Structure to design on (942 residues):
């Protein structure tokens, strides 16, 4: 019996669209009223989460949509998952809500086990975790760990801060607050706070008008598809991009302490790269004494058919830090070198040091994925879906291009000819009963939960065929 | 009947200390084991939250301590508060846990009400809120709002970004990413990420080895106590500090778009300032076209006997932004000028745009405070406690000094002669049954929840008297 049949006996057999526009009249009114107390300009529709179930999201107009966007890739196990509801009702969770500890100072007796439950699901080669609150927070905490390590090593791990360092850092000046950088890639997305914004390079709206650190950027491979047809060109593209990374290390105005990279650039357009590229990055970071940070915020937690997407590439030695959030419903970074634990207490510290609620949920989500073979299941769905999408791409070859994500479960994307057509496509897909999202300028990205099955893929393909025939 | 009598019928009548050290043998073992999976070097002890109740925290050794630190000022209504447990068990909360929405894109039908429930408790003069995840996050989101507003106004709110701005910001350079600053004060604490770290000026360990923005710092008043004895000197101190702020605006290397200040500098030593100082800041920010951000992360949510500490000063016009976190168990910034809503959607945006779980809890906490007159109650306790502390200060005048926080409920601090003596005091207080925390180099800060009553104050005073007699 499939997971949805077992866990979501009330999941609809297909979408239902009852309004001529989405949002419909009730949705429009709800967005307007919400706008009085919240910035609702980005709201696609207002959901009724009480009625949503499994792969289906219901809106306040009563539209029932197959959801292949899943809260910007953040709902791994469907709406109102009964097993997660049990976790939410547990005494452990209730205590985590009402007695939220300052984990660093007053951890609870159950926290060791909570953390061990999470650590079971660490990427291969990673043994430790530091907890945060969001993807941006996780990445910035990782940067702190990297900078502390780099500069403590330079200073001598046992050596105290000098009076000059102490005085200068209180004025935000070197040597206490030196210029030191994280390298990131064009089209990367790593968050929207100030350091995470400094490494984000996807769209101007993500970072305009923010003061930022003058950190280096390199180029992420832009492959030609289908991959098998352009293997030689794509290999050259890897070499070209890696050369730029190495040049930055040689020429940048300040030390580069780390490189951050997504295993698949997601917001930036679902840009994939090869095992050779990632190993090349690993080699360069080792050569120049920098840390490699893999940002698994969007790709991680099973969406690509393996728990952590970068594991696919067998990067050797494993990356130094791996950040997570979104589908994990918790955030933080994995690591394995104890040297990345700051040499003094209270350097990596804040009131909450994470959130036990999220950690409990993250472990429960990962357990559910493992115990129900959902990675295997989503890979099967993905292979099935990709085949169908190839047929659609061939049928609409003037509209659909650059189908990508083969072999990566349902972490699939394709391009449309323009932003306008993409917007029309996304809107018509909603009216055809499917909630799907875009990425970069002309991309469409599929991000269903891990409970997306062949029957759901069939509904998606039928809707897509119908919509494309009208474009 | 008092709140604790009504809500915590099982609250102990006093502390019980059963081990010779805290942590005792079980606690030491628990910290060591936790250290395998979490940085436990900062752990004072390991708590048993299942057994903790009301004002009392229980550790794994069975020690029962009166808690006047309350998770670094973050537990407003005691441990295992029965009314919050009901909220934690509610369907609304369970949905918020298992169906966490991307609030910006797919808000739930219940979110408008959830947000309105929170907004009821906004500071005087504030009408809007933007939601975040932690104090540092709230402050950085506030900075974004301030920078967007300042630069959009300069550009023209209706004007699109120029091609030059778009291209330069992708390289982290001006004009898209210009140099622009937030002014903060010496001894301030506003968080430990990169922009929040740039305005934090409390201790080197909070920000050493982090690249930071070269933003200006001014001096926060350092008053002489008792205030009534030094009113003339303290007035001069206000003028001196305000003059420095104004000089920064006149001379800084880049525009200063905002000033961030705590109503009471907490981590930095419980430094208070006068209504005249805050009004002076308001006047200077208005004069130079900058925004005033009040950081209520630690002082806000009733701890000082009013819901928002800065309301005490009747700052006119009200501050532009007020940030909150900690006791609210949620985070974000309040504001009132619609111009602080970015001129384009998706400028202030992220996957989660806050956390309904926390917002639900924040509103419930504030409701509970209001419905049970806990502000009045904590003010009464505070006045009672302050009187007793004055007596203690007089009795131990060679050890205790600078008692401060009069009329601010139990948001009280005092100094000891040295860091060593402070450490000894805090440790001995635990062994006398009281968990209390330090601030800055030699300060002791009291941060009980709002359910701290006279009977608890008596226990605190008795323990303090006993401990001081041994120093």
């Amino acid at each position: 019996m499939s997971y949805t049949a077992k866990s979501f006996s009330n999941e609809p057999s297909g979408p239902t669209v009852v309004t001529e526009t989405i949002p419909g009249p009730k949705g429009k009114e709800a967005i307007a009223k919400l706008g009085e107390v919240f910035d609702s300009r980005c709201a696609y529709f207002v959901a009724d989460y009480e009625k949503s179930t499994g792969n289906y999201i219901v809106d306040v107009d009563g539209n029932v949509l197959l959801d292949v966007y899943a809260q910007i890739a953040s709902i791994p196990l469907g709406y109102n998952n009964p097993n997660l509801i049990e976790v939410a009702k547990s005494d452990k969770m209730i205590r985590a809500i009402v007695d939220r500890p300052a984990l660093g100072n007053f951890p609870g007796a159950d926290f060791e086990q909570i953390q061990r439950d999470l650590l079971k699901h660490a990427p291969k080669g990673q043994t430790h975790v530091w907890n945060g609150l969001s993807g941006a927070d996780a990445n910035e905490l990782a940067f702190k760990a990297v900078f502390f390590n780099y500069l403590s090593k330079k200073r001598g791990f046992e050596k105290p801060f000098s009076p000059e360092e102490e005085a200068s850092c209180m004025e935000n000046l070197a040597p206490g607050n030196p210029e030191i950088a994280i390298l990131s890639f064009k089209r990367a997305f790593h968050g929207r706070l100030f350091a995470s914004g400094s490494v984000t390079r996807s769209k101007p709206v993500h970072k305009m008008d923010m003061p930022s650190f003058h950190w280096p950027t390199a180029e992420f491979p832009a492959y030609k598809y289908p991959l098998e047809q352009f293997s030689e060109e794509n290999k050259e593209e890897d070499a070209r991009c890696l050369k730029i990374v190495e040049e930055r290390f040689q020429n940048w105005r300040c030390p580069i302490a780390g490189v951050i990279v997504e295993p698949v650039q997601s917001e930036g357009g679902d840009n994939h790269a090869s095992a050779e590229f990632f190993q090349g990055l690993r080699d360069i970071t080792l050569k120049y004494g920098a840390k490699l940070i893999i940002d698994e915020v969007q790709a991680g937690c099973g969406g690509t058919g393996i728990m952590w997407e970068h594991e696919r590439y067998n990067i050797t030695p494993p990356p130094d830090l791996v950040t997570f959030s979104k589908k994990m419903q918790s955030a933080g970074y994995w690591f394995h070198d104890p040297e990345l634990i700051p040499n003094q207490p209270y350097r990596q510290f804040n009131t909450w040091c994470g959130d036990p609620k999220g950690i409990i949920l993250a472990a429960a989500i990962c357990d559910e994925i493992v115990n129900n073979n959902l990675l295997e299941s989503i890979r099967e769905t993905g292979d099935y879906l990709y085949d169908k999408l190839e047929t659609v791409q061939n049928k609409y070859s003037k509209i659909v291009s650059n189908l990508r994500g083969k072999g990566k479960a349902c972490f699939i994307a394709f391009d449309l000819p323009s932003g306008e057509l993409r917007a029309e496509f996304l809107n018509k897909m909603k009216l055809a009963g499917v909630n799907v999202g875009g990425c970069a300028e002309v991309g469409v990205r599929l991000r269903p939960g891990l409970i997306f099955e062949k029957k759901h893929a069939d509904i998606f393909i039928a809707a897509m065929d119908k919509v494309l025939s009208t474009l």
User: Anything to note?
Assistant: Residues 374-395 of chain B form the longest helix (22 residues).
